Amino acid sequence: MHDQDETSFLADVAGVLFDVDGVLRNGIHPVPGAAAVLTGLDRAGVDYCLLTNNSTHSRASLLAELASIGFEVREDRLFTAATATAVWVAQENSGRQCLILVAPDALAEFRRAGVTLAPPDAVDRAEVVVIGGAGPHFRYDRLNAAFRALLAGAELVAVHRNTSWMTESGLSLDSGPFIAALEQATGATAALVGKPAAPFFDEAIGHLGISTDRLLMVGDDLRADIMPARELGMKTALVRTGKPIPDDPPIDARSITVDSVAALDWSALARTPGKYA
Ligand SMILES: [Mg+2]
């Protein structure tokens, strides 16, 4: 643990954004003490949101999965990149045929948002290609259909560009390098919806209604969680429970590196003057 005085570090924090994978859990394994952190914030009346680039699950099934490992999260507190992308694509590309490379469970979000799916026999003529998190659905034929659609002028949308994520079986290859490959092969440039894109953060920040200088972002990804949160004026805590962290993460009055979300002195928030009526 860094030797910064964590009590003073959290003293002016009034709300928290938590990344999920690598912070609260790794696959089906909860990070020890993480559930108690959320319960403690609930008890203290501190508002928080979960902001995740997860695109393998619908919001409902991610909530159910989190509940099954001890995280009872209020539905309005969970912001997923899959849902944000589905809503954005439905708004921006109404009626256009889309090839959506996401896990089957996450596809429900796109159907619910009213996104038009390209017929199975015409996916290589899709007008919009959406790439979510990698997984078994990243078959060659699907990626090749995306390649052909992009060559024909389709727009490319990235749910996120993460290069890896931590699962119960270890660090796993994510979709970022596949998106780079499609860009290189076609000349397309992906529009990014999930972290580190600022509008995705803004959704959660708007929901909390707290100015960014009084918010804390807790994440395990320097590029997707920590750097954008710093740019938005938030305090940040980089945790060591997820991805391997770089040798020289930012450490200053507004950024800290800790072993785990449970290693922070959360009781400092409960002492924030004026926060608790
Ligand atoms: Mg993470």
SSE order and pairing:
Elements: H1 6-11, E1 15-18, E2 25-26, E3 29-30, H2 34-44, E4 47-52, H3 59-68, E5 78-80, H4 81-92, E6 97-101, H5 104-113, E7 116-117, E8 128-131, H6 140-151, E9 155-158, E10 164-167, E11 170-173, H7 176-186, E12 191-192, H8 198-208, E13 215-219, H9 222-231, E14 235-239, E15 255-258, H10 267-270
Parallel strand pairs: 1-4, 1-13, 4-5, 6-7, 6-8, 8-9, 9-12, 13-14, 14-15
Antiparallel strand pairs: 2-3, 10-11
Bound molecules: magnesium ion (MG).
Magnesium ion (MG) is lined by residues 19, 21-23, 219-221, 242.
CATH homology superfamily name of the largest domain: HAD superfamily/HAD-like
Total number of strands? 15
Order of helices and strands: HEEEHEHEHEHEEHEEEHEHEHEEH
Look at the helices and sheets and give the structural class: alpha/beta
Give unreliable regions as ranges: 273-277
Shape verdict: elongated
Distance between the termini: 33 Å
